[in-house]
């Protein structure tokens, strides 16, 4: 399957471990489909939940999906700085004309000063039991969370100074 090219709009779909569709981001602009990561940008896009609810994002965002990483990051440009919402999930794949991954419930909210909060631990525990996550998946989830927290502490990858702003400038070239 041919990867999308920079400037092309794509959908992002997340699923749950049992294969159920979780959420669809309607239209994100591809900025890079490199060997180590895919980077997309969006602004005030429609998001559809599996229960039929729909909402729009509130600000421009740059999303980074690292090859083989068990997390992805959304850097949101707000007046007081860049805020991040990070999803713990399976590595991405390009399938049926959409960027797809399995959402494993745990999320990390990162503030402009790089302090963070781990969210939805109760949801993770509930789904882990209900969907009977295998030990191999739980190991990858823990490893992904540890890797993500390490990048935050070191301010590397998407957490580097000006990373989000630089990619946002590229996004603006396509819009």
From TrEMBL:
Domain DUF402 span(s) in chain numbering: 18-156
Keyword Repeat: no
Highest taxon listed in the record's lineage: Bacteria
SUPFAM superfamilies: FomD-like
Keywords assigned: Hydrolase, Magnesium, Metal-binding
Pfam families: DUF402 (PF04167)
Protein name in UniProt: Protein associated with RNAse G/E
Native source species: Caldalkalibacillus horti
């Amino acid at each position: 399957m041919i990867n999308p090219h920079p400037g092309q709009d794509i959908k992002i779909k997340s699923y749950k471990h049992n294969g159920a569709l979780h959420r669809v981001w309607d239209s994100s602009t591809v900025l890079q489909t490199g060997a180590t990561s895919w980077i997309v940008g969006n602004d005030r896009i429609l998001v559809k939940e599996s229960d039929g609810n729909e909402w729009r994002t509130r600000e421009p965002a740059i999303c980074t999906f690292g090859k083989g990483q068990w997390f992805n990051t959304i850097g949101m440009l707000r007046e007081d700085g860049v805020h991040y919402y990070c999803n713990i999930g399976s590595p991405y794949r390009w399938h049926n004309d959409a960027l797809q991954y399995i959402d494993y419930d745990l999320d990390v909210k990162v503030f402009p000063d790089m302090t963070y909060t781990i969210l939805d631990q109760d949801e993770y525990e509930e789904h882990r039991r209900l969907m009977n996550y295998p030990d191999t998946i739980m190991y990858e989830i823990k490893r992904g969370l540890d890797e993500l927290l390490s990048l935050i502490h070191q301010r590397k990858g998407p957490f580097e100074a000006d990373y989000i702003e630089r990619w946002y400038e590229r996004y603006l070239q396509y819009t």
